[in-house]
Amino acid sequence: MLRGRPARTLLLAVLLCLPPFYLDAFWLRIGLFSMAAAIGAVGLSLLSGTAGQLSLGHAFFLAIGAYGYSYLASDPGPGLPPALAACCAVLLAGAAGGLFSPVAGRVKGIYLGIATLALVFLGHHVLLTWDSVTGGFNGRSVPPLTLGGFTFAASDPELVVLGVPFGAEERLWYLGLALFAFTWFTAGGLLRGRPGRALAALRDSETAAAVMGVDVARHRAAAFVVSSMYAGLAGVLLALAFRRVVPDYFSLALSIDYLAMIVIGGLGSVAGATAGAVFVTALPLLMTRYADQLPLVTAPGSAEGSLGPTEAARYLYGAAIVLVLLYAPDGLHGLARRARARLARRRTPSGGRNPAASASATSAPSSASPFSPAEPAAAAPRSKEHTP
């Protein structure tokens, strides 16, 4: 039997493969949007949480991934095979990050945040005006992804697995799961390796990192490129899940949402970015579905002045950001880590000491005590305790 981390990883993988057999399309759609958001949030966490670089332009690179795939795989357009178009869209987002990397390598803090903010406004203007590529205000439809003759969309003939019909959401669930697993392991390996240690050193002290031989500008630029490629991959998955991309989705509000994800989940943590992405993505969708059952929240399209589910969700995770900054600066991941440590201490008896040794030490009188009676010289031999 496997124990420890391999067993937990295997169990989690099995559990994540089961939802398409039991959940309806609404819950699968929430899972797809959450996995896409988690991929993008992991990239932003590498940049802002690990490298310490503030970015407000994450929506720009998400748009490049989404629109890049939609244009490259469709007609009118180059009409590339969908798998090749997806890879090219990710590389295109990385190339855009590379073009901006000289700025990211030399500017830091709020100045980099303002510089990346300009990318969002510039990108939104291009999406609205470059009609031949982006479709303008109405956007453009997204062609389905095809791998080896298998289409990740509802198509004929209908696919039935164990008596369950597999439509677009069911098929895309496993694609999103594979992309998320790829992101999880590559980002985790990056953080545990020398590049991750170099970026953490840059975040803590640039002077100390430079003294230790870290190329400050090069590592900052590399972090920006890697973060852009993760955002492009998230944009491709979002486009496949939405099936149509429009410019208004890739606005400044989306960049703020991604900042909220990594702050709530915990900066510099892959697991924390995932938890924050699920929270920020799923909350408005759940509030929209159950708006008629929640107090002070009205259904979408109600009269003006009422509190809609989207606005209520933003208030809630805005309050969550304030609470995290005040009481848990390391986010949900830090809270979970401290809870596991507290449980481990409670499971260890006597603070981690050997209870048999403690009992023998307290029961046997000390020969140096002035209050112990003097023993005769020829005392009976005492049996030796066996150490387990």
UniProtKB/TrEMBL annotation:
Record-given protein name: Branched-chain amino acid ABC transporter permease
- Region annotation (Disordered) maps to 343-388
The membrane spanning regions, by residue number, are 33-49, 56-74, 80-100, 109-127, 172-191, 221-246, 258-286
Q: Where is the composition biased (Low complexity)?
A: 355-381
Q: Pfam families this protein is in?
A: BPD_transp_2
The record's keywords, sorted A to Z, are: Cell membrane, Membrane, Transmembrane, Transmembrane helix
- Has keyword Magnesium? no
Q: Where in the cell is it found?
A: Cell membrane
CDD domains associated with the record: TM_PBP1_LivM_like
Where it mainly occurs, coarsely classed, is: membrane
The answer on whether this UniProt entry bears the keyword Transmembrane reads yes
